């Protein structure tokens, strides 16, 4: 397992899978170990995945200062990894919460980004808000599923301020296009893969400057793919379209019947779209 030293001396780990040109992959969660990304549906047939374990997760050490778990400060860990790998430019992929990290990296280091792939990305970094109504509308698309009544009831409980572990469990199927054994195992693993202390700091005060980030992104010349699942709410396809429009060369793709982990829902579709995007000149 290769490691490198971050700007503050914290030893960080990454995992390599596949062959070919490197693709730096930053996991979401927030603050979930990179193991949940797997091989991104078989993307390893096209790229060498460099899967970063963010500080305090997976095989990476915890920092001395917990404040460094804040999203904007994690950007420096991505830059340290680029320097460690000796790459002038990077192809960068962020999923879910780490869509914020990847976006902030592109805003801060636009000349270091060759291509940017944002998979079901969180949009806090640019000030786009996912509302309760967005969640309800996305959930309603799944009304024919046997687990839907429990999920609908859980959404109402959470909207009323009654947040329980049982309610979150009832919502779990909404994150997946197929609530099968693979999806259920993927969900079950999340309990041991996530650093709750770090996650509580990730979105801390001062982490984001949406107007400043939006302005900085206008200097990014790299192609950007924002990939959303048809059935996801964060972001839903409309938010993903708006997000893509913030980049000079941004495009949106919507995966049919996809959820928040689209590489599990239809690996072939996901790999074909992402690999094709990365292969462009």
Write the SSE topology:
Blueprint: E1 3-5, E2 11-17, E3 22-26, E4 48-53, H1 71-85, E5 90-95, H2 98-108, E6 113-119, H3 132-140, H4 148-159, H5 165-171, H6 181-193, H7 196-202, H8 210-217, E7 224-229, H9 237-244, E8 250-255, H10 262-265, H11 267-278
Parallel strand pairs: 3-4, 3-5, 5-6, 6-7, 7-8
Antiparallel strand pairs: 1-2, 2-4
Describe the structure.
The protein is α/β, with parallel strands linked by helices and 281 residues long. Helix 1 (71-85) crosses helix 2, helix 2 (98-108) packs across helix 8 (210-217) and helix 3 (132-140) runs antiparallel to helix 4 (148-159). The chain has helices at 71-85, 98-108, 132-140, 148-159, 165-171, 181-193, 196-202, 210-217, 237-244, 262-265, 267-278; strands spanning 3-5, 11-17, 22-26, 48-53, 90-95, 113-119, 224-229, 250-255. Helix 9 (237-244) links the parallel strand 7 and strand 8 (250-255). Strands 1-2-4-3-5-6-7-8 form an 8-stranded mixed sheet, with helices on both faces.
| Physical arrangement of strands within the biggest beta sheet | 1-2-4-3-5-6-7-8
Distance between the termini: 32 Å
CATH structural fold name: Rossmann fold
Can you give the mean pLDDT? Answer: 96
């Amino acid at each position: 397992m290769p490691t490198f030293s971050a700007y503050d001396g914290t030893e960080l780990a990454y995992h390599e899978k596949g062959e070919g040109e490197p693709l730096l992959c930053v996991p979401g969660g927030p603050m979930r170990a990179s193991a949940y990304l797997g091989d991104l549906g078989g993307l390893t047939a096209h790229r060498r995945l460099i899967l970063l374990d963010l500080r305090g997760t997976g095989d990476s050490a915890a920092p001395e200062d917990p404040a460094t778990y804040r999203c904007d400060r994690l950007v420096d860990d991505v830059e340290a990894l680029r320097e460690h790998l000796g790459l002038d430019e990077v192809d960068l992929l962020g999923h879910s919460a780490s869509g914020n990290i990847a976006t902030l990296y592109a805003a801060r280091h636009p000349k270091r980004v060759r291509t940017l792939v944002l998979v079901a990305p969180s949009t806090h970094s640019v000030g786009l808000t996912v509302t309760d109504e967005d969640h309800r509308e996305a959930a309603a698309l799944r009304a024919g599923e046997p687990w839907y009544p429990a999920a609908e009831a859980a959404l109402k409980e959470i909207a009323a301020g009654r947040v329980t572990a049982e309610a979150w469990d009832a919502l779990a199927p909404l994150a997946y296009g197929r609530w099968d054994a693979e999806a259920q195992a993927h969900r079950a693993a999340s309990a041991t893969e996530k650093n709750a202390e770090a996650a509580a700091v990730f979105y801390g005060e001062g982490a984001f400057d949406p107007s400043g980030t939006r302005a900085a992104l206008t200097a990014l010349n790299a192609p950007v793919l924002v990939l959303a699942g048809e059935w996801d709410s964060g972001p839903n396809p409309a938010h993903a379209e708006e997000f893509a429009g913030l980049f000079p060369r941004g495009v949106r793709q919507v995966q049919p019947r996809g959820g928040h982990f689209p590489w599990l829902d239809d690996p072939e579709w996901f790999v074909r779209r992402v690999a094709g995007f990365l292969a462009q000149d």
